[in-house]
Design brief:
The complex is a heterodimer.
Chain A (H helix, E strand, L loop, with lengths): L3 H14 L5 E7 L6 E6 L29 E5 L1 H12 L8 E5 L8 H7 L7 E5 L2 E6 L2 E6 L6 H4 L11 E2 L14 H7 L3 H11 L8 H5 L24 H14 L9 H5 L7 H15 L27
Parallel strand pairs in A: 1-3, 3-4, 4-8
Antiparallel strand pairs in A: 1-2, 5-6, 6-7
Chain B lengths: L2 E5 H10 L5 E8 L2 E6 L18 H4 L3 E8 L11 E2 L7 E6 L1 H14 L7 H8 L1 E6 L25 E5 L3 E6 L2 H9 L4 E2 L2 H17 L14 H5 L4 H5 L7 H5 L6 E8 L2 E8 L20 H20 L10 H5 L6 H10 L1
Parallel strand pairs in B: 2-6, 6-7, 7-8
Antiparallel strand pairs in B: 1-9, 1-10, 2-3, 4-5, 4-12, 8-9, 11-12
Classes of the chains: A alpha/beta, B alpha+beta.
């Protein structure tokens, strides 16, 4: 996916020079391996800072919320779906955006790579011909990228942007015969106590830093319910009840809105699989409402519409 | 000075036997990373690590601590009277602490234990803690302890130093507190010359491996307002998502918030770690927020660590170079790059 870097830079330069956008949002190369930093470019001469590779796993839509300028932004499948959600939820206007679409073949899971090299210190990671070459002191290993995808990318069904103004390359072939909810099904068959135990263990290392919430483009409330002081809904210590309340309520706030971009898990310093909460809700949204978030600008998410012809009786 | 040699398993067995005298904290592997946990029945210490994901600061300064308690019971004669909550000051040892994290305690001490203010709980807990360091044979590319007054085998802030010689640990006492501790760790054999020589060579070899620096030499000469109004803060802060990862993982971040919580008839006054990255940190009762914008909060973190603290205490920056914020910032804001911008401004 390296070859997109030049095309992204060219697009940013052109758009900024032509005055089509005031700012351009993309990634610049990070200072540590397998990390890139979201960047805002306003000067076309600085467009060469822009970079793209398989370590751009944060969701750039997060940086669009309530902006008032005209913005160029790069978007792969999941980011574009969050942009659609942002447009529907009035967080940004389509007219403000110039979307440079990226056909995505998935992001690398840095944790999986670290495990594969047995936690030896990695100094450099290169991508070449679908392979990842990892280097360190006395370490050089090569892995097939496909086997080291971020978990959401491995099951991704929408690699190409759903809205865009131009594309940096041919559309990526979509993955076939994907079983999206294997992990959710495993939890669904558990009894209540086991489920509770599973989720309690899962979040036991949470330090309430809110990186998951803050990395999520859906979490744009001016004041999050956990930060409310009057009334205070949730305690602020690391009491397990409060921590669980935060995670469960946050997930419910994302019901029918989550695009499974995995920014939350990627951001978590403790490696908590917070997607286990949202994925269940994604599965429900799909099964109950045939809904996948952010696929169309013309349809509102199921949790914020009321239809008089709803087939359910309870709502009439 | 005590110098003793232990094999890995002897060392752990000997530590376990001090159980009645000290509460021992050791690095334990938890999935993809290590953290310090109490050495209890079934604990598997693992000294094969770069550094723990969370710093050991919580052993002296818990993330959530009950300061006071009172009864929320209308019938109780002492209803609403705050009483100090029971605290644990039992002697403890952090075994395997890296020299950077030990230095961090000294940095924090200037805030919690100075002629003006003395935090009774932090001070008593720190005084009852023995720091048994583990020298870093393999510093990470994100380690920059040697440019902030420390080093991979820096002894100054430790009570005992452990040298990992491959097949054995050499334990060497540094302070009297450390000597007393080691005298109670029964077992091991006297250190022979070969072991001592091997240990001595580790420090210089480790220093060679440090590739990372933090530039701060010119910061003292800058004016506060100059740096405060510098043009780069917006750019530095753009990617920040305002989470608390950097501050919670940092061994030198000490800020806290005090909350009252009620559980039935029990009321607690709790002190929790706070983070200056959150807008809530400075939100005033009136609704006014002096650090309403993200760039102001990001600026505060770096100004505090690299300008206010050095100016106030004249004893280096508020950073011990552990590199956790560099490695785990979800958006890759790198203190080394920000320090360079400030230093060269």
């Amino acid at each position: 996916m390296h070859e997109y870097t030049e095309k992204i830079r060219d697009a940013a330069k052109r758009l900024l020079k032509e005055g089509k956008v005031d700012t351009f949002i993309g990634f610049k190369k990070g200072s540590v391996p397998m990390m890139n930093e979201p960047a805002l470019i306003t000067d076309p001469d600085k467009a060469d800072l822009l970079h793209w590779d398989s370590n751009c796993g944060l969701n750039l839509c997060n940086y669009l919320t309530k902006r008032t300028d005209r913005i160029g932004i790069i978007a792969n499948g999941c980011t574009s779906r969050n942009i659609v959600t942002h447009i529907i939820e009035n967080q940004i206007k389509r007219e403000q955006l110039y979307i440079v679409g990226i056909p995505c073949t998935g992001m690398i899971d840095p944790r999986a790579i670290k495990r594969a090299v047995k936690f030896k210190e990695i100094l450099d990671v290169e991508e070449k011909d679908g392979r990842i070459i990892v280097k360190g002191n006395g370490l050089e290993e090569s892995f097939e990228k496909r086997a080291f995808l971020q978990k959401n990318c491995a099951i991704c069904l929408h690699r190409n942007p759903v809205i865009y103004d131009e594309m940096v390359g041919e559309k990526a072939p979509e993955q076939q015969e994907i079983e999206s909810f294997k992990d959710v099904k495993k939890i669904e068959v558990m009894g209540s106590d086991d489920k509770w135990g599973f989720f309690t263990r899962m979040i036991s290392s949470c330090i309430r830093c809110y990186a998951c919430r803050n990395a999520c483009p859906l979490c744009y409330c001016t004041t999050c319910f956990v930060d409310e002081a009057q009334p205070q809904w949730v305690g602020k210590s690391i009491d397990p009840t409060d921590t669980m309340t935060f995670h469960i309520l946050r997930a419910f706030h994302c019901a029918g809105r989550c695009t499974d971009c995995e920014a939350c898990e990627r951001a978590c310093p403790m490696g908590i699989n917070v997607r286990q909460f949202t994925k269940k809700l994604n599965k429900d949204a799909l099964e109950l409402f045939s809904w996948e978030a952010g696929m169309s600008e013309d349809q509102r998410p199921p949790m914020d519409v009321y239809k008089t012809d709803d087939y359910n009786d309870f709502i009439k | 000075m005590i110098k003793k040699l232990f094999t890995g398993s002897d060392w752990v067995d000997a530590l376990k036997k001090t159980g009645d005298l000290y509460k021992i904290f050791v690095p334990v592997r938890e999935g993809d990373f290590h953290n310090f946990r109490p050495l209890e029945q079934g604990t598997k210490p693992n000294f094969d690590f770069y550094n723990t994901r969370l710093s050991p600061k919580s052993i002296v300064y818990p993330q959530s601590e009950r300061m006071f308690e009172s009864l929320n019971d209308p019938e109780a004669p002492d209803k609403g009277i705050l009483k100090e909550a029971a605290k644990d000051y039992a002697p403890r040892a952090i075994v395997g602490i890296r020299p950077c994290d030990a230095q961090a305690f000294q940095i924090v001490k200037r805030n919690f234990d100075n002629p003006e203010y003395r935090d009774p709980w932090w001070v008593r807990r720190f005084e009852s803690t023995i720091l048994v360091g583990l020298g870093c044979n393999d510093p990470c590319p994100t380690c920059f302890c040697s440019s902030v007054g420390g080093g991979p085998f820096h002894e100054e802030y430790l009570d005992v130093m452990l040298y990992d010689l491959g097949d054995k640990f050499l334990a060497k006492s540094i302070t009297e507190k450390g000597e007393e501790f080691l005298s109670k760790v029964i077992g091991g054999s006297p250190a022979d010359d070969t072991a001592l020589k091997k240990a001595e060579a580790l420090g210089p070899a480790a220093i060679e491996k440090i590739t990372s620096t933090l530039s701060s030499d010119k910061l003292k000469d800058k004016t506060v307002t100059g740096l405060f109004n510098a043009p780069f803060w917006d750019e530095v802060a753009f990617s920040c998502i305002n989470c608390g990862t950097c501050t919670f993982l940092c061994p030198t971040c000490w800020c806290f918030d005090i909350q009252d919580e009620v559980y039935g008839k029990q009321a607690d006054r709790i002190r929790n770690w706070d983070t200056c990255m959150s807008p809530l940190f400075t939100l005033e009762g009136s609704g006014h927020n002096p650090r309403e914008n993200k760039f102001q909060r990001v600026r505060q973190r770096f100004m505090h660590k690299l300008k206010y603290y050095p100016d106030k205490y004249n004893n280096g920056v508020q950073c011990s170079g552990c590199g956790r914020c560099v490695r785990y910032c979800p958006v890759n804001i790198d203190i080394r790059q920000v320090a360079k911008l400030m230093n060269e401004y």
